[in-house]
Structure formats: structure tokens, C-alpha cells
């Protein structure tokens, strides 16, 4: 009886592993899938950034909230302009959406890391940011 349970568990694990490996984003074969996968990756990174932003926003003083909001808005404008510049060579092409999303994703992950570091500091203490 226990052998049957182990066999069933192994079958489920094998099926789950095969299903995970079969994700279209593991090896996209067409531009539409590449664009969709880049968009999904960006959405996940954006959610992480928003979570860190909300956490930091709850931690800082009222003046810090204003400065954080101003900083984040300026960063978003810079990020979008930077990625528009970096992907200008693909503008109008089918690969542009994936390239742009990939650029925004990379910069979003970097900003998340930076805000996470700030989130570990006491407000005003910048010594822990660049460790």
C-alpha cells in the first residue's frame, strides 16, 4: 500500500516538474511569447518594487514621504526615458516591446534593491546604504 502512495506521489512530482519545465517562458519560440514573458517578468519586478516602496513609505517621516514620492516620480521618468533611449534602435520592430520591457525590468530590479537598502537604515543614516 505504501509503495502505491510513493508511486502516486512520484507521478505527481514528475508531472509537476514537467509542467513547470514546459513553461512557454523557459524557451519562447515566437516574438509574441517573448513579449508576453518580458511583460510578466516586468509585472513581477514592479510588484516587488511597489511592496518595498510601501514598506519604506510607512517607515519614513512626513518629510521623508514627500521626498520619497518626489524621488520615485523622478526615477520613473528617468527610467522610462533611459529605456526609450536604449531601445531606440528597435523602435517600430516586433522585438521592441520585449527589449523595452526588459530594460524597464532591469532598472526596476536595481531600484528595488536600492530602496530595500534604504529601508534597512534609520532615516538620515546613509552609512548602511552602500555596504
Tell me the layout of helices and strands.
Layout: H1 2-21, H2 31-59, H3 62-86, H4 96-119
Helix pairs in contact: 2-4, 3-4
Signal peptide: 1-21
Domain Lysozyme inhibitor LprI-like N-terminal: 25-115
Protein name: Lysozyme inhibitor LprI-like N-terminal domain-containing protein
Give an overview of the whole structure:
- By secondary structure, this protein is mainly alpha-helical.
- It is elongated and about 50 Å long.
- Residues 1-14 have low confidence and may be disordered.
- The termini are far apart.
- It has four helices and no strands.
- The protein has helices at 2-21, 31-59, 62-86, 96-119.
- It has a domain at 29-119: Substrate Binding Domain Of Dnak, Chain:A, Domain 2 (Up-down Bundle), CATH 1.20.1270.
- This is Lysozyme inhibitor LprI-like N-terminal domain-containing protein.
- InterPro entries: LprI-like_N (IPR009739).
- Residues 1-21 form the signal peptide.
Shape: elongated
Specify the CATH architecture of the domain at 29-119.
Up-down Bundle
Instruction: Please write the CATH class name of the domain at 29-119.
Output: Mainly Alpha
Helix-strand string: HHHH
What separation lies between the terminal Cα atoms? 56 Å
Largest beta sheet, briefly? none
Helix fraction by DSSP (H/I, runs of at least 4) = over 70%
- Hey, roughly how much beta strand do the residues contain? under 5%
Which fold name corresponds to the CATH topology of the domain at 29-119? Substrate Binding Domain Of Dnak, Chain:A, Domain 2
Query: How many distinct beta strands?
Result: 0
